[in-house]
Amino acid sequence: MKLIDVLRKECVAVNVQLSDKAGTLQEIARLAKKCSVLDSASEQEILLGLKARESLGSTGVGKGIAIPHCRLKSVKEFVVGIMVVPSGVDFDCPDGEKVRLIVFIVAPEVVSNQHVRLLSVISQTLLVPKALDRILASQTPEEVYDSFLKDKDVEINGVQRVPKSLIHVFIQNEDVFRDIIQVLAGIESSSLVVVGAENAGVYLSKMPLFASFWSDKPSDFSRIIIAVVDKNLTNETLRRIESVAGDLNKNVGVMVAVQEVFYLAGSLDT
Asked: Which domains does the chain have, with CATH numbers?
């Protein structure tokens, strides 16, 4: 899927006059419904989806740009549209500027990775020097469409991604730390970073209320190993950690937390 595949010509409008954010969302829903891809979604459903997203925080990104978007269960394909608002409209942007260019997305609920990638591609497109001025200077929907698609061949899907797990290993024993990091470095397709930390006792022992709990200076060794591994290797990774640290449910000094990765891009050097 490329940008040209999801930007719908019938959802591009110029010289739009808008008075406030509420009216803007209503106009987006009306314009989006011009696309037959959204036949299964009502204008009201789209509007409610947009409002729900805005309730989490404004999608106004600043510099006169907003990228309102929503995900709906009834939608099977992406719909991207554009509105040019010459006089601007208040959209609760972080920089306080009025929005003059609105690029909106109505997306399927189940393809989060593509949605994130699409948001990124749109943002990057608008950050190209003079891209915003070029689009705003367009006089017709056709000109806006062509100006926006200067990077029409950018791939939205990206590389097919393997499901990943994010593993945090909290360690308070320096000897065990060395062994565990060696074990994790041997896991296929893993990426590792180590974060320095301090045990809470280091701080609590300095507070008069808690000072009596420590007769000696508390250990100040603490590290967090953050590892990204293929999801199908999660159990094997935990097994290897326990082969070094012992039963995690019985020992003190090592704690492991595992999360499923929602989105992952990029790579790290070891």
From this structure: 3-151 (3.40.930.10), 164-260 (3.30.70.120)
